[in-house]
Amino acid sequence: EAGVAQSPRYKIIEKRQSVAFWCNPISGHATLYWYQQILGQGPKLLIQFQNNGVVDDSQLPKDRFSAERLKGVDSTLKIQPAKLEDSAVYLCASSRADRELYEQYFGPGTRLTVT
Amino acid sequence: GQQVMQIPQYQHVQEGEDFTTYCNSSTTLSNIQWYKQRPGGHPVFLIQLVKSGEVKKQKRLTFQFGEAKKNSSLHITATQTTDVGTYFCAGRGTYKYIFGTGTRLKVLA
C-alpha cells in the first residue's frame, strides 16, 4: 500500500509570512495526526482528527495555526503569520482507528525554515 | 499534563556492545509504542506493549512494559551500525499518544 504523502518537502519563508502543508494519509485510515518536531526533540502532537472531527488540538497555537480535514481524507495545516520558533519538521501520520493497535504511519515530513 | 521522559539523551557504543533506553511516564499508560527514527528520516513503528509486565522480542531487540504501566525499556543486544538512530517511546494516556524525548544512539564501528 502507498504510504503517507506530504508536500512540500521543504519550505523557506520569512517571518510573518503564511505557509500551508498538505497531507494525504494511507487509504482507509480514519485517524490523522499532525506533529511538530523541533530539531533534537520528540514529535509534539498539534492536532488529531478522527475522520472529519477533531479529537485533540490542545497543543495547537490557534492564534496562528489552523488545520482542516475535508471529507475525512486529505488534510492541510496552515501557519499565519509564521514566527522564527515555528522552524521545525511538520510530520503527518495516519492510523487505522478501527483496531486495537493504533500503529502510526508517518509521512516524510515538511522541513520549514522561518528566517 | 502527561509527560514522557527518556534516558539517556545520547548513547555512543562500540559495535557489538549492548544498549538500553528507558522511558518514564508521569501517569499510568494504557499502552506504549516504540519508534525508530533514522537521521534525516521519519519515525517508524517498532512495537506496541499493552499488558502490565509484558516482554516482547524482535531479533536483537527486547521491549519491556513495567508492572505499574508507567515505564518501559528497549534493550538492543550486540549493536550493529544499522541500529544508529533515535529511539522514541510514545505513551498513550486516555486518547492520545505523547512522545518521549528520545535517545539518540551512535554505533562506532
What would the keywords be for this entry?
heterodimer, A: 115 residues, mainly beta, seven-stranded mixed β-sheet, four-stranded antiparallel β-sheet, 48% strand, globular, B: 109 residues, six-stranded mixed β-sheet, five-stranded antiparallel β-sheet, 11 strands, 56% strand
Please explain how this structure is put together.
The complex is a heterodimer of chains A (115) and B (109). With 115 residues, chain A is mostly beta strands. In chain A, 0% of the residues lie in helices and 48% in strands. Chain A has strands at 5-7, 10-13, 19-24, 31-37, 44-50, 53-56, 65-68, 75-79, 88-95, 105-106, 110-114. In chain A, a hairpin with a 6-residue loop joins strand 4 (31-37) and strand 5. Chain B has 109 residues and is mainly beta. Helices cover 0% and strands 56% of the residues of chain B. Chain B is built from no helices and 11 strands. In chain B, the strands form 2 sheets. In chain B, strands 2, 4, 5, 9, 10 and 11 form a 6-stranded mixed beta sheet that branches. A 5-stranded antiparallel beta sheet of chain B has the order 1-3-8-7-6, with no helix packed on it. Chain B is globular and about 40 Å long. The N and C termini of chain B lie far apart (41 Å). The A-B interface holds A 35, 41-45, 48, 55-56, 91, 93, 100-109 and B 4, 33, 35, 41-45, 48, 50, 88, 90, 92, 95-102.
Helix content range of chain A: under 10%
Would you tell me the structural class of the helices and strands of chain A?
mainly beta
Radius of gyration of chain A, rounded? 13 Å
Q: What is the mean pLDDT of chain A?
A: 93
**What's the total number of strands of chain B?**
11
Distance between the termini of chain B: 41 Å
Overall 3D shape of chain A: globular
Quaternary structure classification:
heterodimer
SSE order of chain B: EEEEEEEEEEE
Q: Name the helicity range of chain B.
A: under 10%
Determine the N-to-C terminus distance of chain A: 37 Å
The number of helical elements of chain B comes to: 0
Overall mean pLDDT of chain B: 95
- In DSSP terms (H or I, runs of 4 or more residues), the helix count of chain A works out at 0
Low-confidence stretches of chain B: none
Strand residues, percent of chain B: over 45%
Largest interface: A-B, 21 and 21 residues
Task: Give a count of the beta strands of chain A, DSSP E runs of length 2 or more.
Answer: 11
